[in-house]
Design a protein that fits this description.
The chain is α+β, with helices and mostly antiparallel strands. Helix content is 38%, strand content 13%. Helix 5 crosses helix 10.
Length: 379
């Protein structure tokens, strides 16, 4: 009996030591499992640096670029109920580059750095266009493995850069956020535990379709796009996006990326930016890549990336969404109700941050688009 007690005591000590050794990983894993809980989701979305590893970004040393206030808009009357129903945390509307509506909810403030989720994909698309214009990417029809050789032997072997940009890689991937065992949630646990996102991408071995034959939204495709950019330039994404986009834009606050345990940025959805700075980015896109008299993103790239490009899907370009019956409209979208809506004909940009746990319910997205159009038309 005494010997058994000693063995149990040793086991308890070993378990305690392991718990201390892995405390940060366990804490992050628990954060993933409760990230979207109703009692914590709003604060989590404004404080992701408390929950995950991060990579800091820079706003540069220049002055903050102007974002002037214009005549305040009267929004459609149903907007107030929509803000409640969709758990909106921030709403900012620009007309002709001026703020005509700005409001914050659920205890959040103008200074919060808010998680982008998949809005980050459109930021990476803009960066890709810059890198391509510099001649670092020879052709969109180049094989992915030319720039990311670690993907040889994976499901990405045989895909092209174009397939990645248009979400037509054919890689089998379950993007169901409500399924604990889905690929997207497995990827979240890889991130939380500090494991390698590059290795996760290389571990995918199965295809649902031949590359380039059909559109299938696969978030890890955008991580592969980041791998392509890194391989083509020999530089990390934070260094590139700081130099080419963030510093020239004169942001109000330095953003950050979520990161894996190897310091690799979570480029497919881990960007954290203030609402006003999301608006600056949206206005730059609305102006065909120009900002404060400087061409940030090549205009021809933006023209190409914001028109239908995906096989069999008129609603997707190069990491940008195009709405049905688009009238020079385009948008970036992230889960739980994140949007940058751009109406170029009316020169309107609408930024929404939200913690909408019902974002996947039938009709919600279509109703959001309808309201954005109504807001834009009312200005």
């Amino acid at each position: 009996m005494r010997r058994l007690i000693r063995i149990l005591a040793v086991l308890i000590l070993l378990l305690a030591a392991a718990g201390l050794w892995k405390r940060e990983e366990i804490t992050r894993l628990m954060a993933v499992n409760t990230l979207f809980s109703p009692e914590t989701i709003v604060q989590n979305f404004s404080h992701m640096d408390r929950l995950f590893l991060t990579r800091p970004l820079s706003r540069g040393d220049g002055p903050v670029s102007p974002l002037p206030t214009g005549p305040q808009a009267t929004l459609p009357p149903e907007t107030a109920q929509w803000i409640t129903d969709r758990t909106v945390t921030a709403l900012l509307v620009l007309k002709n580059g001026q703020i005509v509506q700005e409001s914050y909810y659920q205890g959040t403030t103008q200074d919060d750095l808010r998680i982008s989720w998949s809005v980050a994909k459109s930021f990476l698309s803009a960066l890709f266009g810059i890198v391509q214009a510099e001649g670092k990417i020879a052709s969109l029809d180049d094989p992915v493995t030319k720039y990311a050789p670690s993907l040889k032997g994976s499901a990405y072997d045989g895909t092209t850069v174009r397939n990645i940009l248009t979400m037509s890689s054919g890689v089998a991937f379950n993007e169901d956020y409500m399924d604990f065992w889905s690929d997207i949630n497995r990827m979240g646990r890889v991130l939380a535990l500090g494991q390698s996102m590059d290795a996760f991408a290389a571990s995918l071995k199965t295809r649902d379709a031949d590359p380039g034959t059909r559109f299938h939204y696969v978030s890890v495709d955008t991580h592969v796009l980041g791998m392509i950019i890194r391989g083509a330039t020999g530089e990390d994404i934070p260094d590139l996006i700081n130099r080419h986009i963030l510093a020239p834009m004169g942001l109000e606050a330095a953003p950050f990326y979520l990161a894996d345990g190897y310091g690799t940025s979570f480029v497919l959805g881990g960007l954290n930016v203030t609402t006003r700075d999301y608006a600056r980015f949206g206005q730059m896109i609305a102006q065909s890549g120009q900002w404060q008299g400087k061409q940030i993103v090549p205009a021809d790239w933006l023209a190409a990336s914001t028109r239908p490009q995906a096989p069999g899907n008129a609603g997707y370009g190069f990491q940008w969404w195009i709405p049905d019956n688009a009238q020079d409209e385009v948008f970036a979208q992230g889960i739980y109700g994140q949007y940058i809506w751009i109406d170029r004909a009316r020169n309107v940009v609408i930024v929404v941050n939200a913690a909408d746990r019902s974002f996947e319910d039938a009709g919600v997205h279509d109703a959001n688009i309808a309201l954005f159009r109504k807001i834009a038309a009312s200005l």
